[in-house]
Design goal:
Blueprint lengths: L2 H9 L4 H32 L18 E3 H23 L5 H24 L6 E3 H25 L10 H25 L23 H17 L2 H28 L16
Antiparallel strand pairs: 1-2
């Protein structure tokens, strides 16, 4: 092969047939992973009522190698930040303002969660099991593919989507959940000084009504995402979020009541006035 032919071979772009094959394979994987996420949500919901994930106040030995929690959060949340960005750049029509806004909303959450939150939260130097990091990477990778395929390849959003009710309502719900989540994180972060290690009863904000408003806020946030994108993939994410955070909220609530005799009796675990 001549140098000119070699050069042409190097710079040859994928053909339409190549792209179609990739998209067909992605469609098959999307269908499999979407079903898997709903099944995983059910299994997670049931199992976490019997086994508390071993980090934070439920930290315990027997889970192998650990990393400081702040680095663990960065590593395990990174796929959720990077995969949608890749799909947008590789497959999306980058001139579509709706898709740009969807990506911006998603990254609004995950850039903060990956690069800022780990260094703001209390207990950043506590040990976090590598086994949980691996499981979180696998889930965030799977969910990132599901969300990205749904938004950037499968669904079609005309420009007037931005003035339709699902987008307006969904964006409001998303921002409400984000605000509740961040307000609650701030209360928890400022609950103790850096030199203090004893747990205290959180007060203020939505802690007036529930023991875990940070979890409530995240669930509300992803409900907003599911509405504003009007996607099954979004509701699959909501299902898993509830399955993961619901049992942990219940465990936290029971721990608070068992630890503090003066814990507010009217405060619920996750849903104000109900549960």
């Amino acid at each position: 092969m001549t140098l000119a032919k070699m050069h042409c071979a190097v710079i040859t772009r994928p053909t339409n047939i190549d792209i179609r094959n990739v998209l067909m394979e992605l469609a098959q994987w999307y269908s499999i992973l979407l079903k898997a996420e709903f099944i995983l949500a059910a299994l997670t919901f049931l199992s976490l009522f019997f086994i508390s994930a071993p980090y934070g106040r439920f930290e315990r030995k027997g889970w192998g190698i650990t990393l400081p929690a702040k680095y663990a959060w960065m590593i395990m949340e990174a796929p959720a930040m990077l995969i949608p960005l890749y799909f947008f750049l590789a497959f999306a029509d980058q001139q579509q303002i709706v898709l740009i806004i969807f990506l911006a909303i998603w990254q609004f959450h995950y850039v903060h969660r990956t690069l800022i939150y780990p260094f703001q939260k209390s207990g950043g130097d506590k040990p976090f099991p590598v086994a949980l990091i691996v499981m979180a990477i696998l889930f965030n990778g799977m969910n990132g593919v599901i969300i990205s395929y749904s938004i950037f390849i499968q669904n079609t959003y005309p420009i007037d989507w931005l003035i339709r009710w699902p987008f307006g309502l969904g964006l409001f719900v998303f921002l409400l959940g984000y605000w509740i989540n961040k307000q609650s994180d701030s209360i928890l972060k400022n609950l103790r000084t850096p030199s203090e290690t004893a747990y205290k009863i959180p007060q203020g904000g939505f802690f007036r009504w529930v023991s875990n408003p940070h979890y409530l806020g995240e669930i509300i946030e992803w409900c907003g995402w599911a509405i504003l994108t009007w996607s099954v993939a979004g509701w699959a994410f909501v299902a898993y979020t509830v399955a993961n955070l619901g049992p942990r909220a219940w465990s936290h609530h029971k721990w608070y009541k068992a630890t503090f005799e003066d814990y507010p009796s009217a405060r619920k675990a996750l849903i104000p006035l109900l549960w």
